[in-house]
Amino acid sequence: xxxxxxxxxxLLPVWFVLYNYLQPITDYFVDSFLGMEKGSHLTESIRFxxxxxxxxxxxxxxxxxxxxxxxxxxxxxxxxxxLGGKKLxxxxxLASLLGIVTPFCSCSAIPLFLGFVESGVPLGxxxxxLIAAPMINEVALVLLFGLFGWKTxxxxxxxxxxxxxxxxxxxxxxxxxxxVEEWVYQVKAGRxxxxxxxxxxxxxxxxxxxxxxEIVSKVWIYVVIGIGxxxxxxxxxxxxxxxxxxxxxxxxxxxxxxxxxxxxxxxAAGIIPIVQALLEKGASLGTVLAFMMSVIGLSLPETIILRxxxxxxxxxxxxxxxxxxxxxxxxxxxxxx
Amino acid sequence: xxxxxxxGVGCTNCVNLEKLCREVVAENNIEANIQKVTxxxxxxxxxxxxTPGLVINGTVVISGKLPTKSTLIHWIMNxxxxxxxx
Lengths: 337, 86
Fold this sequence. Notes:
The complex is a heterodimer.
Chain A: H1 7-20, H2 22-33, H3 41-71, H4 76-83, H5 90-101, H6 109-118, H7 123-135, H8 138-148, H9 150-173, H10 182-186, H11 201-236, H12 243-246, H13 253-261, H14 268-280, H15 285-297, H16 300-306, H17 312-336
Helix pairs in contact in A: 2-3, 3-8, 3-11, 5-7, 5-9, 7-9, 8-9, 8-14, 9-17, 11-14, 13-15, 13-17, 14-15, 15-17
Chain B: E1 2-7, H1 12-27, E2 32-37, H2 40-45, E3 53-56, E4 59-63, H3 69-85
Parallel strand pairs in B: 1-2
Antiparallel strand pairs in B: 1-3, 3-4
């Protein structure tokens, strides 16, 4: 057990060497080993693919591991305890931040919603959590960092946070409690006092490796397909092809991108490499960011799940407010950059 | 007879947890009634906010993740021992 938890630390230097020498290795492989003609469409597509897939997988493994360890310090039960009885705004800020680090899967959105509401977490605060948790996730941040750089990743995270805080706040101020299904308030949620186990650190490392196994095994195929499509666009689609369609001059592109994004349900891993390639071909950052947020943050399956506890009117308000927030963010970025 | 309840709606880990329970019970020749609970009210009633959850003889032993097989065996054996002392 103890030895097992050391393995990640032995692998760390290997990781750094691989990550730093990926470009020369790729170039050697493509130019010398495969002996492909430099600059042709096919060569550049293949080079892109061979470089990006291992790079993203390396980043993904490291970050998911670290986040897995961080998350072992948080649980929905603990988050609920922190948020119980918090006032609007302060509660919204806290809920959005906790949404990033608390382990969350949209399949347990309902039990979580019931647990929060029943223990006195205000509706608006609960929504801040439910908006931030799926939108700002480690997979999205890794891909943004890997393919766009740290500035875009940071921008995505901070604007995502702002949207979650403000949307939750507005929903709280609108006093929409009556649009929650009645049975929700009749549920007698049990109080699960999870013993605050004193986990030895080695167990947290096991949690980290567990997260890597779970997430990477689920996501790798989307990364490969996404980067594959991205590589095709990278090599074959002419420069500035997207400028007219998703560029700054096309004012309607932001709302259209958001509306298209809502029913699309792809995890971040599949959508971001494609979006990166579009950006390269003249799409503007604000439009691309808005599209991504809409795909990742507003998903049809999740709203359908939420319908079990929320009346239609509240669902539409929720989707409407978040979509508005995303559109505004899109325009701001198109205006600044 | 053990009462084992697997709490969860459709997520992969919930399915895996039920499988794991059946496996452990069969391998150790334990008499147990394994039930899948999909009703949200009932899940919330146990205080579980992230699925999968596992309840053995009325006590929630885990929520939000899949236990390792050895941990699961350990819990089941503990519950059995408790039953015998009653």
